[in-house]
Design goal:
Layout lengths: L1 H33 L12 E12 L2 E2 L7 E4 L5 E18 L5 E3 L1 E2 L6 E2 L2 E5 L20 E7 L8 E6 L3 H4 L16 E2 L4 E11 L3 E8 L1 E3 L10 E3 L4 E5 L5 E5 H4 L16 E2 L8 H8 L3 E3 L17 E3 L7 E3 L1
Parallel strand pairs: 1-17, 13-18
Antiparallel strand pairs: 1-2, 1-9, 3-4, 4-5, 4-8, 4-10, 4-12, 6-9, 7-8, 10-16, 11-12, 12-13, 14-15, 17-21, 19-20
Length: 325
């Protein structure tokens, strides 16, 4: 009888231990599910891959570093432009459904062109013997890649994104080693942030025209991440869009109001660097979808010289840089 009771007690203890382990395992799986993860995947919600194709063009022609030149660009009869660079950042990418609701795209982290919610589109390839070779790199990227819920039908009516680097990543400094924020030429040292977009050509073969979009009016006395830029210059883009179409960035549209025959504003760098005293910025910033506040004195491009402490504001009528094909 004593032996029988001993084995019965032992079986009871072993059974209780097994039950505890089962319960513990169930509890662990429950916690993983509540945290949005499970042992088999990174998300408890089934996902599907999505891709948005981008292209860079000059009118109907594809931007290519090896193209000899593009003719008839700009106002006043147009100029001949030689390609140098074409890159820009986008973030906060979303699809829009017919009912107006948004579906945010979770970007694939690739350690090259996509980091957190930021992507770099790069259309130059530093081709040897071309103007792109000076500051470019061989790699290119023409897509934004990510995931959305598998339950979403790919029947969207619009796509939305913001042009540029978001504020929380913009002021991290040149030492940031996370690609694509480690692309040296995209760093803008004079505002301690990044160039949101770079579009560059040589005008009539030899004269450079740099077009750089970036945040200005930054508190350069602060240290990252406390730096704040009062003028963000991050236009919000919305395009009618059917999944599978291509988002085109068109330099000819960007420059359609720029007369390249007019000399560059004295005392400023060639082209536009988003500065308030740079007369060349009015046309391109407005066509990027950005208001331009002018503090300069030149009237060569039809601008009104600003009075002391009171800039002349030229509001945008909407971006024309992006379209869908």
């Amino acid at each position: 009888m004593k032996v029988y009771m001993f084995f019965t007690a032992l079986l009871f203890v072993l059974g209780a231990c097994a039950d505890n382990k089962i319960l513990q395992a169930i509890d662990e799986e429950k916690k993983k599910a509540e945290n949005g993860s499970s042992s088999g995947s990174g998300s408890s919600v089934p996902q599907q891959n999505v891709t948005i194709q981008f292209a860079a063009k000059v009118g109907t022609q594809v931007f290519d570093c090896s193209t000899a030149s593009y003719t008839g660009v700009g106002a006043g009869g147009g100029a001949t432009l030689v390609p140098k660079d074409f890159r820009f950042f986008v973030h906060d990418v979303r699809f829009v459904k017919s009912n107006g609701s948004e579906v945010a795209v979770t970007l694939t982290q690739d350690s090259a062109y996509q980091y957190q919610n930021l992507a770099l589109l790069d259309f130059e390839n530093a081709a040897a013997g071309t103007q792109c070779a000076a500051q470019g790199n061989a790699g290119t990227n023409t897509t934004v890649r990510g995931t959305i819920a598998a339950s979403e039908a790919l029947t969207f009516t619009k796509v939305r994104f913001k042009l540029g680097v978001p504020q929380n990543l913009n002021q991290n400094g040149v030492g940031n080693t996370n690609a694509p924020l480690n692309v040296t030429y995209m760093f803008w040292s004079w505002t301690t942030g990044y160039k949101h977009a770079v579009v560059e050509f040589n005008v009539n073969t030899f004269n450079p025209f740099f077009t750089h979009l970036g945040s200005i009016d930054c508190d350069t006395f602060a240290s990252p991440p406390d730096i704040v830029c009062d003028t963000s210059n991050r236009p919000a883009i919305e395009l009618n869009f059917t999944y599978g179409q291509t988002v085109v960035a068109d330099a000819k549209e960007l420059y359609k109001d720029t007369d390249f025959s007019i000399a560059n504003t004295s005392g400023t760098q060639p082209g536009c660097h988003s500065d308030r005293n740079d007369a060349e910025c009015k046309a391109v910033l407005n066509n990027w979808g950005v208001d331009f506040s002018y503090t300069g004195s030149s009237t060569a491009r039809g601008l009104t010289a600003s009075s002391a402490g009171s800039p002349t504001v030229y509001p945008t009528s909407g971006q024309v840089f992006f379209r869908v094909e």
